[in-house]
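[User]
Protein folding is very new to me. Any chance you could explain this protein sequence and its structure tokens? I have pasted everything here:
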Amino acid sequence: MTGWLRWAWRQLTSMRTALILLFLLAVASVPGSVIPQEGIDPAAVAQYYTAHPALAPILARLSLFSVFGAPWFAAIYLLLFVSLAGCVLPRTFRLVGSARQLPPRAPRNLSRLPMSASYRTSLTPAEAVGSAASLLSGKRFRMRNAEGWVAAEKGYLREVGNLLFHIALLALLGSVGIGGIFGYKADRLLIAGQSFANTPTALDQFRPGRLVTPGDLQPFTVTLDKFTAHYITSGTLRGQPSSFDASVSYTDRPGAPSHGYLIRVNHPLSVDGVRVYLIGHGYAPVFRVTDGAGRVVFDSPVPFIPVEQRGLTSEGVIKVPDADPDQLGFAGVFLPTAVDVNGRLQSAFPAALLPRVSLVSYAGNLGLNSGPSQSVYQLDLAHLRRLSVAPRPLAPGQSIKLPGHAGTLTFTGYRQWASLAITYDPGQVPALISGIIAIAGLLLSFSVRRRRVFVRAHAAPDGSTVVDIGGLARSDAAGGFETEFAALTAEMMASHGGSQPAGMAGAGQAGDGGSSESASFGDGAGDAGDPSDDEDPPGPIPSARRPQPAAPDDRPALNYLSAPADNESAPADNESAPADNESALGHDEGE
């Protein structure tokens, strides 16, 4: 069982699993952008039920109307969080340990490295090595030197950037989790002239986080003073909206002075850390109902919900429970610009240019005093009878007289309503900061190369000193180290007064063994004090050499050797870290 658990943990924290989970998270988010969400636009969800009565219940059972609160979405999210945590935390400790270690010893045969050069100088070996160490130290290389050689390394920030990206991604997921636990979302449909306070009972829908209580809500109030919508009146885009403006007044606490604000699309109202977004609008026809006893039992606007966007045709119901002798109910449509198309009324334009309302009348028991709760946008017909009055389009000011002395309904006009989304997300700012840090870490990881330069100097039989230089870089896909190495070699040779090429450097072949393994990108552990590095490496020394270029007359010749075309990457024993150091950088670079 322990072995299986270890295997499962390794699979969960592997790069392959993390990429699969990231892909699944992206795919799982697609329905939340395509299908209307209850937490964002409940009116659109109601329209979807009307337009797709067979498909909508299936989508609801799959939680596709509330994707980001679905259990299967949370499972992907939590698995990705655990996978990243299991990868990032061990790497953090490894990076801290490797950042304090010195570069490994210089290999005996520097010609086996991907890039190498050699030249002669009149300086002694100790002077040449000391001068090379001073030059590399001035270029902010991390140094390790001994008698006859110096090792320098640079580019630790590459792994720091890589790790910073993963930590920021982990923090980003944590920020989203904080928002889901301590934040809340709510919706409120507000008719022009109405107000609401930020309390659970005054909100149409309230979705608190796991640790949110009603007392945690900010005590602000909002009044919709006026809503204005403008539409394109000509051309191919006729009827398309050009602007939506909701003029509101708000107070951030009881007794505080009132402030005005204009809420527009993508310009929410921000009050006490809460954002109030404009997410929808429509019309609220105003009706006055007189019952059979001659009493005015209803005089109020009723929000109608749009069922199509081209002409903003809207549907709604009116419930009059106080009517006498029977309760009254009405269901119908509101047409902002009514036109007759082959004997059928339609709305030709979303603005209220020719407003009309057509209703079907019912009488009986509305069922409000018993049974399950009802939606304000639906009429329960179980105990209602349809009245024998033909529906007809009513203009503002017109009435219909109900049969049987049941009363009179008058369409007195209309108002506009706006749908507001109230969102409090304490993890939003941390998520933004985490995203910025993740991008910065990614750019740092791409722009910095981890590279090493080695210098060895020894006396030649003729009394001069031979200086060998070697270098290698890991993950240098964009290139550039060749230029840097050439510049370092030229500068070093100039400071040494180098002259005739020694002809000792060669291009290493893949599969060469030997002490050049100490130049690989491990964490350097086990290299210090190992005298075997100064011995000749086992295995064959390649006899093939690249032809030497002719030296210009005005400068000493250099022997720059890179790996042949089929060996552009470093040899296997030069590029990969020792077995006990493989995890220090080999797995991390892939991450």
Observations:
- The first helix runs from residue 2 to 12.
- DSSP finds eleven helices and 24 strands in the chain.
